[in-house]
C-alpha cells in the first residue's frame, strides 16, 4: 500500500477514535475537583442545605445520616481529595458540569462509552468490601461510585451503571444498563457523577 493510501485510511480512524475517547470524561469527579468548584462559586449543595443525607448500608438499604454531605459523606469522616465526590444531588452534579462548560452524559451516551471500552467498563470490580476507590484509580465506569446521568422525569433523575455495593446478584449483575430513578435533590455516600462535553 502506498504512503498516500495508508494516510487516507489512518486519519479517519484516528479522528473516530479520539472523538470516542473524549466524549465522556474518563474519571468520576473527585472531591478535590468539587471543592475547587465550591470555593470558586460559593455553591451550596442540597445535602448541605438539608443538613443530612443518606448513607447506604447495602445496595438496598440506607439510613439518614446527619451532617452527611460531600465534605463528610458519612456525617463524620472527611473525604480525601482523590476520592470520587459523593453526597451530591442531580442538581449539584448539573451545576458542577455547567461550571466546567460541560453537562451530564445521557443514559445512551453513558452506555455507549461503557461499551466503547468494554474490556474495562464491563468487568465487575468484585471489590465490594472496602468501599470506594480513588476516582483516578478505577478503570471501570460500572464500578466504584454510582453515577447520575442527564435523563430526568418529573422530580426524578436517573442513576445509571453499577457501583461498589453491587454484586453479581444485584444491580442486574454485570449489565451496565442498570438504572434507578431517584429524587433530583437526593444523594448517597456511594453516588457520584462524571461530565461530558456539551
Ligand atoms: Ca462509576
Write out key terms for the chains shown.
198 residues; alpha+beta; paralog of FGE (formylglycine-generating enzyme); 4-stranded mixed sheet; two-stranded antiparallel ribbon; 6 helices; 8 strands; 31% helix; 17% strand; disordered N terminus; binds calcium ion
Question: Overview of this structure, please?
Answer:
The chain is of the alpha+beta class. It has one domain: paralog of FGE (formylglycine-generating enzyme). It has 6 helices and 8 strands. It has helices spanning 3-23, 31-41, 46-50, 90-99, 107-116, 118-121; strands spanning 52-56, 62-66, 102-103, 146-153, 156-160, 179-183, 191-192, 196-197. The strands form 3 sheets. It has a 4-stranded mixed β-sheet. The longest helix has 21 residues, at 3-23. The relative contact order is 0.20. Bound molecules: calcium ion. Residues 28, 141, 143-145, 147, 161 line the site of calcium ion (CA).
Largest sheet: 4 strands, mixed
Number of DSSP strand runs: 8
Number of helices: 6
Helix percentage = 25-40%
What is the 3D form?
globular
pLDDT averaged over residues:
81
Biggest sheet, spatial arrangement of strands = 6-5-4-7
Order of helices and strands: HHHEEHEHHEEEEE
CATH-defined architecture: Alpha-Beta Complex
Structural class: alpha+beta
Q: In oligomeric terms, what are we looking at?
A: single chain
The CATH topology assignment is: paralog of FGE (formylglycine-generating enzyme)
N/C terminus separation: 39 Å
Rg: 18 Å
**Domain module count:** 1
Low-confidence stretches: 1-22, 116-126
* CATH 4th-level superfamily: paralog of FGE (formylglycine-generating enzyme)
Strand content: 15-25%
